[in-house]
Amino acid sequence: MEVRFQNLGPEHWKGDVLLAFACEGEELLQENPELDKAAPWLAVAPALRDFKPKEGALALLHGHPELAIPRVLAIGLGKREDVTPERIRKAVASAVQRCRALGVTSILLPEPQLGRLPGGRERLVEECVCAAQLALYRFDALKKAPKDENPAPEWLALGFDGESVPDGGHAAARRGESAAWAVSLARDLANMPGNLLSPALLAERAATVAEESGLTCEILDEDALAREGLDCLRAVGQGSTRPPRLVVLEYAPAGHEQEKPLILVGKGITFDSGGLCIKPAANMYQMKCDMSGAAAVLASMAALAREGAPRRVVGLLACAENMPDGGAFRPGDVVTAANGDSVEVINTDAEGRLALCDALAWAQKRWTPAAIVDIATLTGACAVALGTGLAGLFCDDDGLAERLGAAGAVAGENYWRLPLWQPYAEQLKSEVADIKHTAGREGGAITAALFLRHFVREGELWAHLDIAGVDWNAKTTPLCPEGASGFGARTLLELMRGGIQ
Ligand code: BES
Ligand code: MN
Ligand code: ZN
């Protein structure tokens, strides 16, 4: 669905359906005088009088079919004081889905009404455009198109009041489009099943996306990984017939080539069977999403580059497939990470931290980072602790933690800060190696984070996002069908837009 602008004011607006937000206890037309100019017939539409604008309510109102605006979809938001950007996002998404069900080709969203809702005018423009696009997201690459279904509307236009087109209005809409593009790409990648997305194929996809978006992309294959000493990542992949890759993305716009980069590291396990410590069968299929962190890094960086942001960013995707096999790595194995530390493998299902520790260590050899943020579907323990609505945020630096939390809040992706509690690091002491790679079941998200911190040099600004639990959307909602959520892509994009200083 294309995003357009109609700048000339309500008398000139047109579209198959106009979306109008209505709050409880208010007169829609009184609050939004431009609606009367855009669709004068609304004042005499009998259905409007019966509409109760509770949260979630939708009412379709009809004018004469030949009019520039033949329909209005009134969207209930509940009481004005209770309205949040999250509620608006959901409302817009439901409305757009209704529009698709109606089979209309075009949607008009009057912008002035957004200035009267809590959240900030430009923010809401961005949110509405993003939500409208995400409402249409589907992972339909692998199935035949259903015969009886309407195509998505061709365009959504923001209707501006001719007199006062706010300066940032168009840019905000483009940001919303860009954010939705990033989330959709992250979902597409994560939804792709393991048989169709091996580490090498993920790396190839990354190279294509990079090329199209203005990132450079370097791929380290098996030999390069061996040369560079990423033996932990190699160990994870050694049970698979499809060898690991490290993808190195860089965005360095002119004038920023020498800047210290923000480094993003994503877990890219294209399928996690657990390896020899094999997982139970029940939800194993969801482990095709175990590269959601890598997907978020790639998608957010590509979107940032398309936006042309003035900032240098490096992204690493640590890609491998974790499979059981005669050649697989075993519990008890000792492998050496890129920083030279030996690691005792305890449970082959804790493969993510092995992939990440190498990428973290290697990144610090190659660059002087401004900051490092890793993102990973790392521990079931994080999902147990925080449930499916909150991701874990680990960071010793209050400033960076706050910026990440704030970026997440803007993105509608929620984080809860968890402690990097030093005393638990005791549990990672090994009898045979420099560090043991797992501790007990209790506090598993924390000990995983402490394991990663071991590979981050003293004084380095670093944060770890554990997105196990939020990467998979179990139930279809207006903003996301069942399957990969794309969680994290928007947080990282928002963080990078603002810069980390
Ligand atoms: N990819 C999983 C974590 C996960 C679990 C993500 C559920 C999404 C949903 C990770 O590789 C894993 O298996 N972690 C183990 C660690 C344990 C063996 C220390 C876990 O959480 O059980
Ligand atoms: Mn695992
Ligand atoms: Zn995993």
Please sum up the structure shown.
This protein has helices at 28-31, 33-38, 46-50, 85-102, 121-135, 169-191, 199-213, 222-228, 231-237, 292-307, 351-366, 380-386, 398-411, 444-453, 489-498; strands at residues 2-6, 17-22, 58-62, 71-76, 106-110, 155-159, 216-220, 245-251, 262-272, 313-322, 334-336, 342-344, 371-376, 391-395, 415-417, 435-436, 462-466, 472-473, 483-484. The protein is an alpha/beta fold and 501 residues long. The chain is elongated and about 80 Å long.
Considering the chains and any ligands shown, give keywords for the structure.
single chain, 501 residues, alpha/beta, Leucine Aminopeptidase, subunit E, domain 1, Aminopeptidase, 19 strands, elongated, binds ligand BES, binds manganese (II) ion, binds zinc ion
In words, what does this structure look like?
The protein is of the alpha/beta class. It has two domains: 2-160, Leucine Aminopeptidase, subunit E, domain 1 (3-Layer(aba) Sandwich), CATH 3.40.220.10; 178-498, Aminopeptidase (3-Layer(aba) Sandwich). Helices cover 35% and strands 19% of the residues. The chain is built from 15 helices and 19 strands. It has an eight-stranded mixed β-sheet with strand order 7-8-10-9-13-17-14-15, sandwiched between helices. Helix 5 links the parallel strand 5 (106-110) and strand 6. Helix 5 runs parallel beside helix 6, helix 10 runs parallel beside helix 15 and helix 13 packs across helix 15. The protein starts with a strand and ends with a helix. The mean pLDDT is 97. The structure holds ligand BES, manganese (II) ion and zinc ion. Ligand BES is lined by residues 272, 290, 347, 349-352, 377, 379-381, 383, 438, 444, 468.
